[in-house]
């Protein structure tokens, strides 16, 4: 099978592992930097051109679209879909999950557990916004932030008010969420492939750090999920329409709550913590499902 990995950097761990896993299974794997592609959009013979040559005869693509490149990256994925090429994650699902607000609204509609969340832009009623999530301590996020950037823990009412006022001065969209103190600075990454949780790890933030991102000094270990946690992760990925997803959740006093659903989850942390061939599982899923014009996304929002 001929598979394209859409990635800007072939040296990244996740890209390398996917390429290795595909080649180990005797498939033709090609890494394509999607920003260097351009498209010929016609009604009968759409195409994607890279280095002056049309990209043809691919059976499937595996998108590894950077958060800051979502618009163009999903346009390339969508063009492959127009050409009838199967995508591990469809363009619509990637776009849906990348919009944090839209993601949370969809999960709320589907009844998936979430932290109590408020959303605002230029409201003057800061007191009301803070009370919406039960007061301080609370977490304040820039809607456009990634990898823990633009995320602030406000431990007091006055701190929360000051941060919200500062963010409002940036003309920014703001998410305000209850602080799940009982999580103890840890979250759980559930790796979902084809509607199944194939691996899970607990990520613990560094001492004094409430964010559990591994690149911020956190550590990870394999963990066993409860039935409720497993069901919640699968439901969240399905709600986004994602076949491959990293679902991040917290253990709260009122059950598992979703923090994020990632359409291009990194493989390094999960493979090292669980010693599982996650890249191989992704390749196997793609091979089993790669049929021409196999576009399944029917979610209406």
Automatic annotation (TrEMBL):
<feature type="binding site">
    <location>
        <position position="260"/>
    </location>
    <ligand>
        <name>Mg(2+) 1</name>
    </ligand>
</feature>
<feature type="binding site">
    <location>
        <begin position="178"/>
        <end position="179"/>
    </location>
    <ligand>
        <name>ATP</name>
    </ligand>
</feature>
<keyword id="KW-0687">Ribonucleoprotein</keyword>
<keyword id="KW-0648">Protein biosynthesis</keyword>
<feature type="binding site">
    <location>
        <position position="262"/>
    </location>
    <ligand>
        <name>Mg(2+) 2</name>
    </ligand>
</feature>
<comment type="similarity">
    <text>In the C-terminal section; belongs to the RimK family.</text>
</comment>
<feature type="domain" description="ATP-grasp">
    <location>
        <begin position="104"/>
        <end position="287"/>
    </location>
</feature>
<feature type="binding site">
    <location>
        <position position="248"/>
    </location>
    <ligand>
        <name>Mn(2+) 1</name>
    </ligand>
</feature>
<dbReference type="InterPro" id="IPR011761">
    <property type="entry name" value="ATP-grasp"/>
</dbReference>
<dbReference type="GO" id="GO:0005524">
    <property type="term" value="F:ATP binding"/>
</dbReference>
<protein>
    <recommendedName>
        <fullName>Probable alpha-L-glutamate ligase</fullName>
        <ecNumber>6.3.2.-</ecNumber>
    </recommendedName>
</protein>
<keyword id="KW-0460">Magnesium</keyword>
<feature type="binding site">
    <location>
        <position position="260"/>
    </location>
    <ligand>
        <name>Mn(2+) 1</name>
    </ligand>
</feature>
<keyword id="KW-0464">Manganese</keyword>
<keyword id="KW-0479">Metal-binding</keyword>
<dbReference type="GO" id="GO:0018169">
    <property type="term" value="F:ribosomal S6-glutamic acid ligase activity"/>
</dbReference>
<keyword id="KW-0547">Nucleotide-binding</keyword>
<keyword id="KW-0689">Ribosomal protein</keyword>
<dbReference type="InterPro" id="IPR013815">
    <property type="entry name" value="ATP_grasp_subdomain_1"/>
</dbReference>
<comment type="similarity">
    <text>Belongs to the RimK family.</text>
</comment>
<dbReference type="InterPro" id="IPR013651">
    <property type="entry name" value="ATP-grasp_RimK-type"/>
</dbReference>
<dbReference type="Pfam" id="PF18030">
    <property type="entry name" value="Rimk_N"/>
</dbReference>
<keyword id="KW-0067">ATP-binding</keyword>
<dbReference type="InterPro" id="IPR041107">
    <property type="entry name" value="Rimk_N"/>
</dbReference>
<dbReference type="GO" id="GO:0046872">
    <property type="term" value="F:metal ion binding"/>
</dbReference>
<feature type="binding site">
    <location>
        <position position="260"/>
    </location>
    <ligand>
        <name>Mg(2+) 2</name>
    </ligand>
</feature>
<feature type="binding site">
    <location>
        <position position="187"/>
    </location>
    <ligand>
        <name>ATP</name>
    </ligand>
</feature>
<dbReference type="InterPro" id="IPR023533">
    <property type="entry name" value="RimK"/>
</dbReference>
<feature type="binding site">
    <location>
        <position position="260"/>
    </location>
    <ligand>
        <name>Mn(2+) 2</name>
    </ligand>
</feature>
<dbReference type="GO" id="GO:0005737">
    <property type="term" value="C:cytoplasm"/>
</dbReference>
<dbReference type="GO" id="GO:0005840">
    <property type="term" value="C:ribosome"/>
</dbReference>
<dbReference type="InterPro" id="IPR004666">
    <property type="entry name" value="Rp_bS6_RimK/Lys_biosynth_LsyX"/>
</dbReference>
<feature type="binding site">
    <location>
        <position position="248"/>
    </location>
    <ligand>
        <name>Mg(2+) 1</name>
    </ligand>
</feature>
<keyword id="KW-0436">Ligase</keyword>
<dbReference type="GO" id="GO:0006412">
    <property type="term" value="P:translation"/>
</dbReference>
<feature type="binding site">
    <location>
        <position position="262"/>
    </location>
    <ligand>
        <name>Mn(2+) 2</name>
    </ligand>
</feature>
<dbReference type="Pfam" id="PF08443">
    <property type="entry name" value="RimK"/>
</dbReference>
<dbReference type="GO" id="GO:0009432">
    <property type="term" value="P:SOS response"/>
</dbReference>
<feature type="binding site">
    <location>
        <position position="141"/>
    </location>
    <ligand>
        <name>ATP</name>
    </ligand>
</feature>
<feature type="binding site">
    <location>
        <begin position="211"/>
        <end position="213"/>
    </location>
    <ligand>
        <name>ATP</name>
    </ligand>
</feature>
């Amino acid at each position: 099978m001929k598979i394209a990995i859409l990635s800007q950097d072939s040296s990244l761990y996740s890209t390398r592992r996917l390429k290795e896993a595909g080649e180990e299974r005797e498939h033709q794997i090609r890494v394509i930097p999607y920003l260097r592609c351009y498209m010929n959009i016609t009604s009968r013979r759409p195409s994607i051109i890279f280095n002056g040559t049309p990209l043809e005869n691919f059976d499937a693509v595996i998108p590894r679209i950077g958060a800051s490149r979502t618009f163009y990256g999903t346009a390339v994925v969508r063009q492959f879909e127009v050409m009838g090429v199967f995508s591990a994650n469809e363009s619509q699902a990637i776009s849906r999950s990348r919009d944090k607000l839209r993601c949370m609204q969809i999960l709320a509609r589907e009844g998936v557990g979430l932290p109590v969340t408020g959303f605002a832009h230029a409201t003057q009623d800061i007191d009301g916004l803070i009370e919406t999530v039960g007061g301080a301590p609370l977490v304040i996020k820039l809607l456009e932030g990634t990898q823990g950037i633009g995320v602030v823990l406000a431990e007091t009412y006055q701190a929360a008010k000051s941060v919200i006022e500062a963010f409002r001065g940036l003309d920014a969209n703001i998410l305000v969420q209850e602080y799940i103190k009982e999580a103890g600075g840890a979250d759980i990454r559930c790796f979902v492939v084809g509607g199944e949780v194939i691996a899970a790890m607990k990520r613990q933030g560094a001492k004094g750090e409430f964010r559990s991102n591994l690149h911020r000094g956190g550590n990870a270990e394999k963990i066993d999920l409860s039935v409720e946690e497993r069901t919640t992760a699968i439901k969240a990925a399905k709600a986004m329409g994602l076949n491959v997803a990293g679902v991040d959740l917290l253990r709260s006093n009122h059950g598992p709550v979703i923090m994020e659903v990632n359409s291009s989850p990194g493989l390094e942390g999960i493979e090292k913590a669980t010693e599982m061939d996650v890249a191989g599982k992704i390749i196997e899923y793609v091979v089993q499902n790669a049929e021409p014009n196999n576009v399944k996304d029917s979610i209406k929002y």
